């Protein structure tokens, strides 16, 4: 897999959507959703150039950094996420996801002219067509695919999301041309990882266990980060944003995945689209640049899958950067009455009896304190 730096930056393809979080019949939060929104949020924070193709309906009301394609005859994609309980001992959330409305799919003609270094196929509601992914493979040097964009099908009655095996998705024949396929540990059950890793690099996120990178000749485990979880929505998308940022900055894949784990862990500590502290972002950008320069002598334009020298030190640095982020969040909380903050957390999820109010979910690259 060879890098090419003569093109544009990153092309993100996937619709924006409206997310409604529901618990026991009560609407707890309504936010801007869609993998594209979370990924572009990370890329913007780290000053990575990107283009975004997303479709929305005439009812779309959010302000976004990248203007979507408005389809006057359609409604915006809407998802209802039902959170009912926490299952022990695994700590996974019992979530039922339903697509209530869906916007038009993204077609090859919707994609821009020109070439891109990296493409990200990150549909959420069935908007990514095989022919659209084929076009992305033509115009992008390396394409990252979120498996949810290709294996999700939706119940014809109530829209419940039901994944199908990857081999039955209609996209399997394109795997040899894909650079990276990202899946959660639950989604990975819908493919044969040992078989797929021979066709493309597979990145599996596994919650408190971190993430694993599977490639043709081996696999690498990437460490997680501590996180006080409030809302798991978008954690996997932020992971992808960190991963592609690392690749753009010519980091080895394990370092890039570590950056993904880092942003996933920050995302779960906030409700909805996360806000990143500017001091943390600057520290991360400076360290990434330093690592890029220090590793430049080993570069031969091939993407590196082995852990580079200093990988553990990079993890330690990101842990310290998270402390700055945590302190910043505490300062923000001081601006609100304690009762307001506690009640906001309590409304979103069923809290345990411990005063820390942390929850256990399996999302990429984080563990709970």
From TrEMBL:
Please report the organism this UniProt entry assigns to the protein.
Answer: Citrus x changshan-huyou
Q: Which Pfam families match?
A: PfkB (PF00294)
Q: Which PROSITE patterns match?
A: PFKB_KINASES_2
Family membership = Belongs to the carbohydrate kinase PfkB family.
Q: This chain belongs to which protein, by name? A: Carbohydrate kinase PfkB domain-containing protein
Q: Does the keyword Kinase apply?
A: yes
According to the UniProt entry, its GO molecular function terms are: kinase activity
Q: Which UniProt keywords apply?
A: Kinase, Transferase
Is Transferase found in the keyword set?
A: yes
List, for all copies, the residue spans of the domain called Carbohydrate kinase PfkB. Answer: 173-272
Query: What superkingdom heads the lineage?
Result: Eukaryota
> What GO terms describe the biological role, i.e. biological process, of this protein?
myo-inositol hexakisphosphate biosynthetic process
């Amino acid at each position: 897999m060879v890098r090419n730096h003569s093109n544009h930056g990153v092309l993100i393809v996937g619709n924006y959507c409206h997310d409604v979080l529901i618990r026991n019949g009560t609407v707890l939060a309504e936010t801007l959703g869609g993998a594209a929104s979370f990924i572009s949020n990370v890329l913007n924070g780290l000053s990575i150039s990107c283009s975004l193709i997303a479709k929305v309906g005439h009812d779309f009301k959010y302000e976004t950094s990248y203007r979507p394609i408005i389809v006057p005859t359609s409604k915006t994609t809407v998802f209802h996420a039902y959170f009912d309980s926490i299952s022990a001992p695994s700590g996974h959330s019992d979530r039922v996801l339903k697509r209530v409305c869906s916007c038009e799919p993204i077609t090859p003609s919707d994609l821009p002219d020109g070439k891109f270094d990296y493409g990200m196929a990150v549909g959420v509601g069935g908007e990514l067509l095989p022919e659209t992914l084929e076009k992305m493979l033509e115009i992008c040097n390396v394409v990252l695919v979120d498996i949810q964009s290709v294996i999700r099908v939706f119940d014809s009655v109530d829209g419940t999301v039901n994944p199908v095996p990857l081999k039955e998705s209609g996209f399997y024949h394109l795997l040899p041309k894909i650079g990276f396929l990202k899946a959660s540990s639950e989604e990975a059950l819908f493919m044969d990882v040992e078989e797929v890793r021979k066709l493309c690099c597979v990145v599996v996120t596994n919650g408190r266990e971190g993430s694993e990178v599977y490639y043709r000749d081996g696999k690498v485990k990437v460490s997680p980060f501590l996180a006080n979880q409030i809302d798991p929505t978008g954690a996997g998308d932020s992971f992808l944003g960190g991963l592609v940022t690392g690749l753009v900055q010519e980091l080895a894949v394990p370092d890039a995945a570590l950056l993904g784990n880092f942003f996933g862990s920050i995302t779960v500590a906030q409700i909805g689209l996360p806000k990143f502290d500017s001091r943390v972002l600057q520290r991360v950008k400076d360290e990434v640049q330093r690592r890029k320069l220090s590793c430049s002598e080993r570069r031969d334009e091939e993407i590196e899958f082995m852990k580079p020298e200093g990988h553990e030190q990079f993890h330690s640095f990101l842990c310290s950067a998270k402390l700055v982020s945590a302190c910043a969040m505490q300062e923000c909380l001081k601006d609100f009455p304690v009762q307001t903050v506690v009640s906001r957390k309590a409304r979103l999820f069923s809290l345990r009896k411990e005063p820390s109010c942390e929850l256990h979910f399996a999302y990429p690259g984080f563990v709970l304190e």
